[in-house]
Write a structure and sequence with these properties.
Length: about 170
């Protein structure tokens, strides 16, 4: 929710800043009168210039804070049998799951996502329509396949969350 408000606001403020800065630069360069007024303004209104600098600094800090908190990569720490720690990017898990869904449903695109929370993998997917009678067996197979894949390919043998749903039948 906060991202849906903060990101557009931040984008608007940054774009507005550059539009105003661009227009001001054109006016200062094009008109000697505006240039002399601009220089006089800077010399007289040092308080406004200081407030402008503080505002720019605050926007810069807000951008850095936003990028740091919302765009950081998620890694999973896996301890190997020989006591080495490996950090795997969630994109690796995403690629393996994408390949798995392609193998299981070659004619369908399966929307899925991987999320790493508190060193636990959360896998969500919206599977194509399967008749109700076959869903339980398919879910057991997927759980078994994912468990084996995570252990064999990535050395991950800890708990994971598998949140799957089936699409409704299309007429």
């Amino acid at each position: 929710m906060m991202n849906q408000f903060f990101y557009p606001l931040l984008t608007f403020v940054i774009s507005l800043f550059f539009v105003v800065l661009g227009l001001l630069s054109i006016l200062v360069q094009a008109s000697p009168h505006v240039r002399s007024e601009f220089v006089a303004f800077i010399e007289k209104d040092q308080l406004f210039l200081s407030l402008f600098a503080i505002g720019c600094l605050a926007i810069g800090v807000a951008i850095i804070f936003y990028l740091r908190t919302n765009l950081k990569k998620s890694y999973l720490k896996i301890n190997s049998k020989d006591n080495h720690a490996y950090f795997l990017d969630e994109n690796i898990f995403q690629e393996y799951m994408h390949d798995y869904w392609k193998q299981l449903f070659p004619k369908e695109e399966v929307p899925s996502s991987i999320l790493i929370q508190k060193n636990k993998i959360v896998i969500t997917a919206d599977l194509p329509y399967i008749p109700s009678a076959k869903q339980k067996a398919l879910l057991a197979r997927i759980n078994d396949d994912v468990k084996k894949m995570l252990a064999r390919l990535l050395g991950y043998q800890q708990e994971y969350v598998l949140a799957l749903s089936f699409q409704k039948e299309t007429s």
